[in-house]
Amino acid sequence: MDLNRRKLLALGAGAAAAATTGAVAAPAAAAESTGGGGVPSNAALARSLGLRSRYAKGQHYVIGGKGEPLVLLPGWPQTWWSFHKILPALAKRYTVIALDLRGMGGSAKPADGYDKKTMARDVHTLVRHLGYDSVNIAGHDIGAMVAHSFAVNHRAATRKVVLMDVGHPDASLYEQPLLVQPGHGFSLWWFAFNQVQSLPEQLITGRSRYLVDYFMDAFPPDPSTIGELSRRIYAHAYSRPDAIRAGNAWYQGFHQDIVDFATYGKITAPFLGLTSEYSYDFMKDAWAGQGTDVRVHKVPNTGHFLAEENPEAVIAELKAFLG
Predict the structure, then answer these.
(1) Which end of the chain is more exposed for a tag (fewer CB within 10 A), N or C?
(2) Are residues 305 and 82 in contact, defined by beta-carbon separation less than 8 angstroms?
(3) Is 304 in the active site?
(4) Average of per-residue pLDDT values in the chain
(5) How far apart are CA 323 and CA 318, in angstroms?
(6) 278 is catalytic
(7) Over residues 57-74, mean pLDDT
(8) Annotated active-site residue in 238, 251, 278, 280
(9) Contact criterion met (CB below 8 Å) for 135 and 61
(10) CA-to-CA distance for 293 and 270, rounded, in angstroms?
């Protein structure tokens, strides 16, 4: 697979947002409400994993297990459920806390605050609310961007950090072509699409399953690793205009993220990068200079959604790194 394809997988599948900050607003509906669209509620899904569904400080999260705290941050177009295959095993060793980020799933969807520094502050606020001075933190896709920001802006609160298949936005995003020559990879078209105001909501509302299936079929070597229930959960989470608008805002926030990244020093906590089969070379080079203690490992037989495509390997990597 060529470099453009590897770059695409390395950058991940995020959704856009406004680059301004703001307080987290109250949710439109409680996170414990009954799920719609034939999808179980967050409470029922959490119980199926032996965990508890909770809401605090504008954020929905599931929590359970025992041991050192491990915060898990998902990406687009997914929710906390993207970690469902690894949470039960990790809960035997750690207190797992899987979040819906600002704008995602059962969390609040305010008008602004979708830059990754503000989203990292959301996470830090929740961590402190739960009584922890420091945590291990792992993020995938958009969640990896937030985890990176958490690690540099809340150093004392970061024990170890794991970034999965995506790096923090930097100025290289401005060099990505919109139109790619035939046979030379393909465009990150959704990065541009998610910059558009209002149109995505009009096009995707009620049709989010097409979007979910596109990515779940295009990225994994074996699309069957992301099953029907998971696809319905993700489609339901991005089915409403406010959810689509908030997800797009993560991408619109890239402009501020790039400005912020230019001011960041290196991650000083121990730093593990996990990549897909295709993004290893690109991400290894990118991450090498972003931390003082960096190791990068490839998760075999994966295309982007690491924790769902090869959960056993991800569990083993996290246990070995976190101890």
Answers:
(1) C
(2) yes
(3) yes
(4) 90
(5) 8
(6) no
(7) 98
(8) 251
(9) no
(10) 5
Active site residue 114: no
Mean pLDDT (whole number) for 239-262: 97
Coil, strand or helix at 54: strand
Q: What whole-number distance in Å separates Cα of residue 116 and Cα of residue 135?
A: 18
100, 141, 165, 260: the active-site residue? 141
- Please identify which of the residues 84, 140, 168, 304 carries the catalytic annotation: 304
pLDDT digits (tens, 9 = 90+) for 303-323: 999 999 999 999 999 999 999
Assess whether pLDDT exceeds 90 at residue 8: no
Asked if residues 38 and 49 have their Cβ atoms less than 8 Å apart, the reply is no
CA distances from 45 to 61, 100, 240 (A): 12, 14, 20
pLDDT tens, position by position, 203-244: 999 999 999 999 999 999 999 999 999 999 999 999 999 999
Cis before 77? omega within 30:
yes
Q: Of 278, 318, 274, which Cα lies nearest the Cα of 297? A: 274
